[in-house]
Amino acid sequence: MSRVSRLLLVALLGGWTWAAQALSLRDDSGRELKLAAPAQRIVSLLPSLTESVCALGGCARLVGVDRYSNWPPEVKKLPQLGGLEDAQIETIVALRPDVVLASSSARALERLEALGIQVLRLRSERHADVQRSLQRLAELLGMPERAAPVWARIQQQLQTASARVPAHLRGQRVYFEIGSQYAAGQSSFIGETLSQMGLRNIVPAELGPFPQLNPEFVVRERPGLLMGPAREREGMARRPGWSTLPALQQGRLCSFAAEPYEVLVRPGPRLGEAASLLADCLEKLP
Q1: Could you give the C-alpha distances from 146 to 10, 54, 139, in angstroms and in order?
Q2: Could you give the CA distance from residue 279 to residue 31 in angstroms, rounded to a whole number?
Q3: Is 26 helix (H, G, I), strand (E, B) or coil?
Q4: What average pLDDT score do residues 175-190 get?
Q5: Both ends of the chain: CA-CA distance in Å?
Q6: Do the Cβ atoms of 50 and 72 come closer than 8 Å?
Q7: What pLDDT is stored for residue 105 in this prediction?
Q8: For residue 164, what are the contacts with CB-CB under 8 A and spacing of at least 6?
């Protein structure tokens, strides 16, 4: 083979290598993201996406995170860049990210895109969203094969936690409070976990994943189980009519301190761990 032929072959092979590494991803807002190669510099503006990147083995590629990302511990050392609505645009641009990860509902990042920064928006409402996001992120990292084992581990943890739910609590009607007057409905990832664990959510799917509720709604529905953040525990019984709820009268209340509560409300790779936390509480209830 002549020198010219060898150079031509190298050039062609190099081109094929580039083509094999090039990425084209469509996010959950319908936008198409194109990268010449797997992302090496990533900014995450959502804790669940931060956790997902790390669970897939890409933690070292994060160059900045939102103010709430705190797991795994090493991400606390990264620059904190605000949140979805008050992102530090100039600082993000200065970090030269290949991509910024955000919620599909984020509307305040169009300026980033106008400055040439690609934004991957991912939905995080249901279990299927978590599974799809893991696959998209694994592709973004150039390691698509890593998504399936992470999801399989989550599923196994969910099954193990479900098997631990005491028989006398299966079928109980449950209210899971996200914050004052907000709840996790049947169609949310939390609602799906509760359903898999044999519990019945008092908030129907048609109200959406995380509806704002009038406290009287809960009084009318009379749940046999209450779940929520520990900071709301003392005040629940003082809400009008709530002292009559079967859950409070029978002492069936699961309240979670800040750290475990974060695990429960983040739709990411710790879904299985969240189910285990729920089972821990349910095993102790009368």
Answers
A1: 31, 11, 9
A2: 39
A3: strand
A4: 94
A5: 81
A6: no
A7: 82
A8: 279, 282, 283
Give the DSSP per-residue string, 111-164.
HHHHTT--EEEE--SSHHHHHHHHHHHHHHTT-GGGHHHHHHHHHHHHHHHHHT
- Give whole-number Cα distances, 200 to 187, 194, 207, in Å: 12, 7, 15
Model confidence pLDDT, tens digit, residues 186-204 = 999 999 999 999 999 999 9
Q: 145 is written with which tokens? A: 């094969």
The 8-class DSSP code of residue 80 comes to: B
Q: How confident is the model at residue 19 (pLDDT cuts 50, 70, 90)?
A: very low
**DSSP conformational letter for 180:** T
- CA 258, CA 237: separation in Å to the nearest integer? 20
Please list the residues that pair with 32 across neighbouring strands.
Answer: 26
The pLDDT value given to residue 7: 35
42-44 and 62-65 as β-strands: parallel, antiparallel, unpaired?
parallel
- Summarised one tens digit per residue, pLDDT across range 205-215 is 999 999 999 98
| pLDDT score of 162 | 98
Alpha-carbon distance 189 to 5, whole Å? 57
Is-contact 165 197, C-beta < 8 A?
yes
**Which residues fall within 8 angstroms of residue 225, CB to CB, at 6 or more apart?**
169, 172, 173, 174, 175, 199, 247, 252, 253, 254, 285
Q: Pull the structure tokens for residue 267.
A: 């739709």
pLDDT at 42 (0 to 100)? 98
> Who contacts 60 (Cβ-Cβ below 8 Å, separation ≥6)?
none
CA neighbor of 203 nearest in space, from 181, 175, 242 = 175
Q: Give, in order, the Cα–Cα distances in Å from 59 to each of 54, 69, 257, 274.
A: 4, 12, 26, 21
Q: Is the dihedral of CA 218, 267, 179, 224 positive or negative?
A: positive
